[in-house]
Design brief:
By secondary structure, the chain is an alpha/beta fold. The chain has two domains: 252 residues, Type I PLP-dependent aspartate aminotransferase-like (Major domain) (Aspartate Aminotransferase, domain 2, 3-Layer(aba) Sandwich), CATH 3.40.640.10; 110 residues, Alpha-Beta Complex (Aspartate Aminotransferase, domain 1), CATH 3.90.1150. Strands 1-7-6-5-4-2-3 form a seven-stranded mixed sheet, sandwiched between helices. The N and C termini lie far apart (58 Å).
């Protein structure tokens, strides 16, 4: 593709994306495709000769767009958001165009130093512990997702735990990790990948609001020690996936310090709310954490993938994951003058993710980000009042930040049928969970372009469909 054609097609794509942002609310949120529909429209083998961009883009609109669930729709209220924004898209475009491979400082100094600096900005903006700043013994790195952050934390904790123990054969099979029954599934995957095994992951029951039961955690650790196991890792959550429950980080942290156990805190979506001082109570006790992560790609208008992972001691992380073959040696690395983020993650290669995050933070500023977060939480409270006042619906847990979990008074099967009908209709998209063994509908407000009118429309649609089912 010549520079001239690239320029022309690039303008066309930006125009298309700008129109898409305007028009997406009129599209069915959930793809109406059936399994196999997309592949049935694709040729069985790749073309022998190159095809025109016009033909490629025509197939994109004809085949791909109908197979998209529109996460950027303001009528998307399912899961947690995976929102993006204009500045994030433009930052991603530049990152793709530059094609930087940021494995070492040497391979692009700006890629490394911008990432370090932007993550330091966030430590200050979110009032995170100063131990997470690069000027301390800790620091931050952008991972692809919280799943990778959890795995990196678990591997580092495993290395630290085995250093504390004698090196006799069979230490690792005696390691035990702890989380609540509401912890994200990435924790279970991490113990599988790390070789700890599912059978060594203790899932601790939760209290009535979905937070980990402290007495049960203490009892599980004590029981394991008495049976010859080595407790080494606890994952606490600030904003669980099902209900946005918040674990008591300070109390968990004291237990971990006393027991010499690594504490990892997953801030998931909720962590972004700490940009606003009035929501920072959930971070009380974070100074006890050995590691912490949250996802700007959920609620900070930065497109996937972008997880911010902080550690209190970066040497523990890099000594666990660092490998230096001869072909990567260079003067700056050998002198210890720079950060090489290849040692902070599982893969060697890494994209220039900091660029899009930098664009977002500069475009919105702290005030702008706070405004949108407060708006989403305010709207969630207003909707909670509407649900509470309605005779046919009830909230199963108190509204937490921007997530509501409610059910229909006709019972679980009715609520399940209601959700299926709503999603099949395509005007809005919602997901479900279970709370105290009851089926409930989750309503999460966090999309970039969502306004109160979209929330009103969604609620009216919920009520309308419920009436037709009765």
């Amino acid at each position: 593709m010549s520079p001239e054609e690239f320029r022309r097609r690039g303008y066309e794509l930006v125009d298309w994306l700008a129109e898409y942002q305007t028009d997406v609310e009129r599209l069915p949120v959930l793809s109406q495709s059936c399994p196999g529909d997309i592949r049935a429209q694709l040729p069985p083998s790749m073309p022998a000769q190159g095809e025109s961009f016009d033909d490629i883009f025509a197939d994109f609109e004809r085949i791909i767009i109908p197979g998209i669930t529109h996460w950027q729709s303001p009528n998307f209220f399912g899961y947690f958001p995976a929102n993006t924004s204009g500045p994030s898209i433009l930052g991603e475009l530049l990152s793709a165009g530059l094609g930087v491979q940021g494995m070492l400082w040497l391979t692009s100094p700006a890629c490394t130093e911008l990432e370090t600096h932007v993550l330091d900005w966030l430590v200050d903006a979110m009032a995170l512990p100063s131990t997470f700043k690069s000027a301390s013994e800790g620091g931050g790195v952008i991972q692809d997702s919280a799943s990778s952050a959890t795995l990196c934390a678990l591997l580092t904790a495993r290395e630290r735990a085995t250093r504390f123990e004698s090196k006799e054969k069979g230490v690792e099979p005696r390691l035990t990790a702890y989380c609540s029954t509401e912890t994200h599934s990435s924790m279970e995957k991490a113990v599988m990948i790390a070789g700890i095994g599912r059978e060594r992951l203790r899932k601790i029951p939760t209290d009535e609001v979905g937070a980990i039961n402290l007495k049960a955690l203490q009892a599980a650790i004590a029981d394991d020690r008495s049976n010859g196991f080595i407790p080494f890792f606890v994952c606490a959550t600030i904003g669980t996936t099902s209900t946005l429950a918040i674990d008591p980080v300070a109390d968990i942290g004291r237990i971990c310090r006393r027991e010499r156990v690594w504490l990892h805190v997953d801030g998931a979506m909720a962590g972004t709310a700490s940009l606003c001082p009035e929501f920072r109570e959930m971070h009380i006790g974070l100074e006890f954490a050995d590691s912490y992560c949250f996802n700007p790609h959920k609620w900070m208008f930065t497109n996937f993938d972008c997880d911010c992972f902080f550690v209190a001691d970066r040497f523990e992380l890099t000594s666990t994951l660092g490998v230096l073959p001869e072909y990567l040696r260079n003067r700056a690395t050998d002198a210890g003058e720079v950060i090489d983020y290849r040692d902070w993650q599982i893969p060697l290669g890494r994209r220039f993710r900091a660029l899009k995050l930098w664009f977002v933070l500069r475009h919105y500023g702290l005030d702008g980000l706070q405004f949108h977060i407060r708006q989403h939480i305010k709207w969630a409270k207003e909707l909670a009042e509407i649900i509470t006042a309605h005779a046919d619906f009830e909230l199963l847990v108190p509204g937490s930040l921007n997530l509501l979990c409610f059910t229909h008074t006709n019972g679980d099967e009715f609520s399940k049928r209601l959700l299926e009908c709503l999603n099949e209709a395509g005007a809005i998209f919602l997901t479900h969970t279970t709370v105290r063994e009851r089926y409930c509908i989750r309503f999460c407000i966090g999309q970039t372009h969502t306004e109160w009118r979209h929330i009103e429309h969604a609620w009216n649609e919920i009520c309308r469909v419920a009436e037709t089912l009765e």
